[in-house]
Amino acid sequence: MPPSLDPVKPVKCTYKDCSASFDTLKAMKSHKKHSDEHDYCYKCDEDFDSYDDLAQHKAFRPDNHGKACRVCGEEYKSTSGLRRHIELNHKIDQKLVCIGCNSEFYRASLLTEHLEFNHCPKIPAIEFQGHIVHKYLISELLKGGSALNRFQQKISRYDAAIDDDENEGGVELNFVDPEEDADVVREVNFKAIEPEIPQESLNLPQHPGPYPPLPSTRKVSVASEISSNLGRMSISGASDAIVPSTPGRKTETPSVTHPNKPWGSGRTSSVLFPGAKSTQTPSEFSIKCHDDEMALTYGINIMNTRFWDPYSVDWNPERFLDTVTQKYSCPFTCEQTFDIPNDLNRHILENHRITRMKCPSCLKYFKSCTALMCHCESRGSKCQINKADDYSLFLDKLTGGFLAVEEKTRPDFLHNPTVKVSNPDTGRIEPYKPPVASYLQYSVTKPADWKEPPQTVSVGGTPDDQVETVQKPKPLW
Ligand SMILES: [Zn+2]
Ligand SMILES: [Zn+2]
Ligand SMILES: [Zn+2]
Ligand SMILES: [Zn+2]
Ligand SMILES: [Zn+2]
Ligand SMILES: [Zn+2]
User: Fold this and answer.
1) At what angle do helices 125-142 and 108-116 cross, to 10 degrees?
2) pTM of the model
């Protein structure tokens, strides 16, 4: 029975574009109240042009509408009830861009899934996990006390050996003394304006002298492991480049001069990824890390080096070789030792990987980082993890430094004027500001131990061309 077909009655609907008419005012109001076409406030008898306007109106009239959601107009008795409703029903989409492949995600859990389940073409899952384990290990070591001391002991023999070594080049100079570190920082700053050094002149990560005995072969086995396991990264050419089967390479090493001490990790990646230009990104960040690290670890650059990870370019089992007992110590807090690096590698990969994760608030276990991230993002759950004061610290650990979070006022609540309303209890006109809702804004960050993927090379030519250039051994005589 569409009203428009009825004959005109004395009371016309107050909406201009509506032709309905009624016998009584009450019938007309009832029509407006129940019509989906009309945004009418029955309690206040006011017409609104849009649903948004009606919702806004309700939010600013606590006398008639209690605590009303200004997004949808739903009314609540308490501010907490209203906040909960907004959190559950009016989620704000995130804008999270993967630092590897630039894909965009609107939930933190979706980005996490992308990284954790190997969906990213640039950041392999194994690397993502590595960043998480790294965070975990660093926090264990930096708790202070015995863990760090023990760690220092484990590496002290190697450290001492490096200091004795006449040639200070090579790849494993993440362990530097404070004075050298000052140089490193200057160098990093300076690098941005330095002319590009021809890749061939950057040398190989080999120890020219008799000590330590095995590093070059170790390096090779690790590198080939990396290339086979991280097949998606285009480092196959690079791993060829460090195979020490080219006899000339070894003789080349001593001739290399080191005008400055190389920033160890940067050098590592330049060797493993010779096609890649050094990127500026680490510089700014490393300086901050550097400061933290100086204060906390007396010069050991553990913050931005995945020194413990057999999948990382930073990995060097020799660092954990006790030259007296000839055994390799596990870099983690377990006290296991191994006769050969391969056993140490296997031990780390088997025993120090993440298999499940626990929510520190409700103590539930989750099968994946993604599942725990979903748990964190769902504000409807009883768990209050995402409301904890140190949630951002937890998130940093959970995602291995890929995500940060900040509590912000919802954009649709930024404009929150004060209105005058009559207080039903006192009958007086009082100023009123509707409650403001906040939301958690996630943002993408770079892990402290992040190395730019090698494919950011910007010189001309196809990637294939570059690999070829890299693979050509430079004649040395
Ligand atoms: Zn109408
Ligand atoms: Zn109203
Ligand atoms: Zn609502
Ligand atoms: Zn990606
Ligand atoms: Zn271990
Ligand atoms: Zn929980």
Assistant:
1) 110
2) 0.61
